[in-house]
Amino acid sequence: MRPGNHDEPGEEATDTTGGDRAAMQQRIERVLLGGRRKYTRLQVAEKAGVPLERTSRLWRAMGFASAGDDDVLFTDADVETLRIADSLAQAGIVDSSVQVSTARALGQHLARLAEWQVHLLRTVIAENPELAANDRRLARFIDQLLPQLEQMQNFIWRRHLAAYAGRALVAPEENLVSRTEVVGFADMVGYTSLTRHASDTELAGMLERFETVAAEVATERYGRIVKTLGDEVLFLADSPGDGAEIALTMVETAERDEQLPSLRAGLAYGKVLGRYGDVYGSTVNIASRLTSVARPATVLIDREMAHALGDDPKYTLRQRRAVSVRGYQRLKPSVLRRAGEETPGLIEAGQRLAADLLGVGPQSAYAPEEIFEDADEDELR
Q1: Is residue 2 part of a domain?
Q2: Distant-in-sequence, close-in-space partners of 146: CB < 8 Å, separation ≥ 6
Q3: Residue 231 sits in which domain range?
Q4: Are strands 232-237 and 178-188 parallel, antiparallel or unpaired?
Q5: Does some domain include residue 276?
Q6: Fewest C-beta atoms under 10 Å: which of 53, 58, 259, 338?
């Protein structure tokens, strides 16, 4: 589909200012909502046969502001969706006690997706000004684009559903809420300093590259990205070996990539509480804290992860002295490297420290005396 090449005979460009712009907004809104707004919150609750209090809670949970009694905001699609949600609860498929939590999770994830898609649409319009010059043409373009986006989203959702359901249904004894996994964080070193000097375009390109590298590395090694947090990514892996490969490969890839600063990573192995696509618990906290004290281009792991990798000949572990971080007084991390990889010598470590102190390189999270720890650490293997 080529945007802007759908002129009808006699169709002329119109000025989209003032009242024309408001009319265009309403036309686009009707296309996106599948109809015009014609119900108040009282009317939509009555038509759906769902108590008003429950409809209001669900509406807020999805991320929308509360509606006044006389505000005409809802469409026939809202009525039908409420009916479906209520029927699922009545059938016992979705417990009414978790309806609000489910709506909140969907709202948060889909809000981010919608924001990205609107930015994409604005880019298309900017590159094809003839679309913005005619409201009918723009509305028709969106009307044609929407089913394609829905089809693509539905396909990706089903593929993820199939991948996750395959494991969950084949092993029904597995606890999918609390399970033992590798939790990893990786973040860009010196990002705060970079934001003060780079342009918006440069930052956007760097973040896009970072997210691309993280996603490709994680999926290629049987992990999954939980979320990105600006300059940081949170990922999971089922096995210690997969987690180690993901973290090391991310760091190595960034070192070879001219678009990216150095990365640092932290890994922890243990029980993880999963809730609506996010993860919680001390294992997550430890991985985050280890990342915050890791040196550039370094992977730190906790004691449980070190124990799990202890007999793997592909890796070398070097134990560091205990560190105190927020919430944990004496974490005992180890540096994870590939077997045969040389450790930084005193000269290289001194150069890194000098660069940090002069402000010409990424700042190390270690105190100066810790830069030279590798010279006299006890090698675990």
Answers
A1: no
A2: 31, 32
A3: 178-343
A4: antiparallel
A5: yes
A6: 53
